[in-house]
Design brief:
Blueprint lengths: L2 H20 L10 H7 L7 E5 L3 H13 L3 E5 L10 H6 L7 E4 L8 E4 L1 H12 L7 H31 L5 H24 L10 H10 L13 H11 L2 H6 L13 H8 L8
The chain binds glutathione (GSH).
The site of glutathione has 13 residues, from helix 3.
Length: 275
Amino acid sequence: MNKDTGFQHALERRWSLRRSSLICRRPDENRDPVSFFLIKKNGNDMIDLYSMATPNGHKIHIMLEECGLPYRIHHVDIGKGDQFKPAFLKISPNNKIPAIVDSDGPDGKPISLFESGAILIYLASKVGQFLGETDREKYTTLQWLMFQMGGLGPMLGQAHHFRIYAPEKIDYAVTRYTNEAKRLYGVLDKQLANHAYLAGDTYTIADIACFPWTRSWKNQGIDWADYPHAKRWFDTISERPAVQRGVEVLAALRKPLVDEKAKEMLFGQTQYNKR
Ligand SMILES: N[C@@H](CCC(=O)N[C@@H](CS)C(=O)NCC(=O)O)C(=O)O
């Protein structure tokens, strides 16, 4: 067993041991552990999570913790180039984390999924939670989820990139994406001035998707004092036990992105090689 594989196994063992004691945790039910285990079609059903501790990864880590679904973690080190390995590209052809494989898919057969928004919708549908109750609530949830996937995530990502990682400071890009970040926090703040959560009164996958991106507010040029309603929402979500566990998943393996090789892997030619 090489060093990496040995470490991977140890990690999986640690988490599956931890999961086995948590396997029945469902936030809205007081089921006893044994009965929940028995209602599962197959006690060995497990979600394989391919991920890293980044905002997009955190969304799924938090969701899995909120749902109390058993999962096994595979660390994909995107700074080392694990995302370009053929086995990973088979489940995530866009070479990005997160991805999952659920051995118990909708038809009882395994299903693999990439794109965090699709994974959140899938998991919410699987457990029947965090999507809203009525059709109206569901569409409102999806609307704010799409806001995150199409706007908040990509724009805050660019703000972060040009403010922190770009090899040269380009004033135009820094100003453009910092302004865009501020505008988007303003949209969140306005919605949260009148609602406890993004889709209304209940916590949904829209909140789970947006929250991890707002954890890096400082690097995005944001001052919470300008967004008091969004800050109240941020603090409320930060206090959820599943969120606190979720943000710790794989966090110990995340290194600051200072290594030139890792930067080349993520932002340089390696990213654009034909595969
Ligand atoms: N839209 C995708 C974005 C995923 C994404 O950008 N993942 C980053 C980490 S946060 C990644 O894997 N980057 C590796 C790469 O670009 O090679 C999602 O939401 O799942």
